[in-house]
């Protein structure tokens, strides 16, 4: 089926000269017939498959189903690899390389004869990175996520990815569980291909692709190994050809209204705090005005409705069986921009209208929420002049207003060496403060913000306390944890001035985070500060580029020179 409009790929394959010969001839070595290049849409399958990324290890299977749909609709599918970021494998943190993957995707799309693209991702950083890169090129685009793994099952208990790792490991440290039993849960927790089965970052971002309108219904919740995900991939292949033929580029969907819908959905599902930096970065690529405060203001009327770990009881399998994202959209339809378009051809409002909930325990009503407090609280004060965030539905209610003395750790190494020291001067009223874990200081802003509770307190029964850092935390984590403090300590933010014993006041409902030290003393401390050492391995290569150009958390941590887009046009030939 030839497209009715002139395609981008025709500037490669439609040329009747030496350059056209080169472009066509070498592709024909793959067995493509002549009419593959006669005006049929060339669809790229941008695949983050890797055996080092267990969440995405089945994406080549899904890719074959996407290809079926592309062929069926008259397109020509071409699969290509990009970097893959295994959240559980990559050191020092996968977040360091999110922008590198985004660059990889952007340049691969711009350089090659592609009319539209299917983004095959799933693991935490792969989805936002692929969308960021695609947004800077702005071709017709659809997301096909890898899907959540099956529920973990261990000795009669349902256990969830990440969330129960933190819970069980703390039980070991408290002496309540043996190491042998803890390690026996390894295989029982990860039972299939797919992303975390809790509402971690991967499932959060997959949910938000539906809210943004760039994925088909079911993308968030259909289990990775369920045949329905392969069917959805097949339909996505047909859909991308339609998007190309109708010239429906990514920018047609990633509007301000779409981002507002995503923020409200983020609150209702109890989504990962990592979504804040990812949506901010994506909006920057789209040239859509989005600010940190939007995550607080826009979600204030949205309670927590999805009862999933780490903020609730259930896992992604139950969310899917309860109706998934269409059901959730139905529950909050009055708060959405219902006319926002989606790649399916239906509006968000039409999808919401069709949504049905089959288990009110998993997807609650507005009148009976899991928690009235949800979303993201954006805190400001002399400790975080550019902002910090807190996830209220994952916190202990009694600690959301708290004042206590700081126990300061100057680095992650300092923390690990002292946190379990019996002589550590710390009580349940203390505020743990971790420095040098921001975007440039670590580098990459790792998921260490949910610092383990000191062992001496664990043995006393303490399971939560206020913790503050310029780091992130896993979307599967929980606790009264203040994150993304900006500016970060490494660049001289006020966090760098905190000393043990200083009193810190957190007032979550007032959105305030204050270091109770007078300005004169802070000024004196600043004048005597010694610049921190350069982060490890930052003297060369991509890491050197990153530490010199990464924006702060309140701006999404993109590289400063990547904000915005360059489009899809390349004027010069290769030979």
Which CATH top level class of the domain at 377-533 fits? Alpha Beta
Strand order of the largest sheet: 7-8-12-11-10-9-13-14
Number of strands: 14
Distance between the termini: 30 Å
Poorly predicted tracts of residues: none
Short characterization:
This protein has 575 residues and is an alpha/beta fold. Helix content is 33%, strand content 13%. The protein has 20 helices and 14 strands.
Structure description:
- The radius of gyration is 24 Å and the shape is globular.
- The chain has an eight-stranded mixed beta sheet.
- The protein has 20 helices and 14 strands.
- Helix 3 (59-72) packs across helix 10, helix 9 packs across helix 11 (256-269) and helix 15 packs across helix 16 (348-354).
- The protein is of the alpha/beta class and 575 residues long.
- The protein has a domain at 377-533: IlvD/EDD C-terminal domain-like (Glucose Oxidase, domain 1, 3-Layer(bba) Sandwich), CATH 3.50.30.
- It starts with 9 loop residues before the first helix and ends in a 26-residue tail after the last helix.
């Amino acid at each position: 089926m030839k497209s009715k409009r002139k395609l981008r790929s025709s500037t490669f394959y439609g040329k009747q000269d030496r350059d056209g010969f080169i472009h066509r001839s070498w592709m024909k070595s793959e067995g493509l017939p002549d009419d593959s290049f006669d005006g049929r849409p060339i669809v790229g399958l941008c695949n983050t498959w890797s055996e080092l990324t267990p969440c995405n290890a089945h994406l080549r299977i899904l890719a074959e189903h996407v290809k079926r749909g592309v062929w069926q609709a008259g397109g020509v599918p071409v699969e290509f690899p990009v970097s893959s970021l295994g959240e559980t494998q990559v050191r020092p943190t996968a977040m360091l390389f999110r922008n590198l993957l985004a660059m990889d995707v952007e340049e691969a799309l711009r350089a090659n004869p592609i009319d539209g693209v299917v983004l095959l991702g799933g693991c935490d950083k792969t989805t936002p990175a692929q969308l960021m890169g695609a947004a800077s090129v702005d071709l017709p685009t659809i997301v096909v996520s890898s899907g959540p793994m099956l529920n973990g099952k261990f000795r009669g208990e349902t256990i969830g990815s990440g969330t129960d790792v933190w819970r069980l490991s703390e039980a070991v440290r408290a002496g309540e569980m043996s190491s042998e039993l803890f390690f026996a849960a390894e295989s029982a927790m990860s039972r299939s291909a797919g992303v975390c089965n809790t509402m971690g970052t991967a499932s959060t971002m997959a949910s938000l692709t539906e809210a943004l309108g760039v994925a088909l219904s079911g993308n968030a919740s259909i289990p990775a190994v369920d045949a329905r995900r392969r069917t959805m991939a097949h339909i996505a292949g047909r859909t991308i050809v339609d998007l190309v033929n109708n010239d429906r580029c990514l920018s047609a969907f990633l509007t301000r209204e779409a981002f507002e819908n995503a923020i409200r959905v983020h609150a209702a599902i109890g989504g990962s705090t990592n979504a804040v930096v990812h949506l901010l970065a994506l909006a920057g690529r789209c040239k859509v005005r989005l600010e940190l405060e939007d995550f607080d203001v826009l979600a204030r009327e949205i309670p927590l409705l999805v009862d999933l770990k780490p903020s609730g009881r259930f896992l992604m399998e139950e969310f899917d069986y309860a109706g998934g994202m269409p059901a959730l959209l139905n529950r909050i339809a009055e708060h959405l921009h219902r006319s926002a378009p989606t790649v399916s051809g239906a509006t968000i409002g039409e999808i919401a209208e069709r949504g049905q909930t089959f288990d009110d325990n998993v997807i609650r009503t507005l009148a009976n929420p899991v928690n009235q407090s949800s979303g993201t609280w954006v805190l400001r004060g002399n400790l975080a002049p550019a902002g910090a965030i807190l996830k209220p539905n994952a916190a202990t209610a009694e600690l959301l207003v708290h004042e206590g003395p700081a126990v300061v750790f100057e680095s992650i190494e300092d923390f690990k060496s002292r946190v379990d020291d019996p002589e550590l001067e710390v009580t349940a009223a203390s505020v743990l403060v971790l420095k040098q874990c921001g975007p440039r200081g670590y580098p990459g802003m790792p998921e260490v913000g949910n610092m383990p509770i000191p062992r001496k307190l664990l043995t006393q029964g303490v399971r939560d306390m206020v913790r503050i850092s310029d780091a992130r935390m896993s979307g599967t984590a929980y606790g009264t944890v203040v994150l993304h403090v900006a500016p970060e300590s490494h660049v001289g933010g006020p966090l760098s001035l905190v000393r043990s014993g200083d009193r810190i006041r957190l007032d979550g409902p007032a959105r305030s985070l204050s270091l109770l030290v007078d300005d004169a003393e802070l000024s004196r401390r600043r004048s005597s500060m010694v610049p921190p050492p350069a982060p490890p391995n930052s003297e060369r290569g991509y890491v050197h580029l990153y530490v010199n150009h990464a924006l702060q958390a309140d701006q999404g941590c993109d590289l400063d020179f990547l904000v915005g887009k360059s489009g899809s046009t390349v004027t010069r030939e290769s030979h």
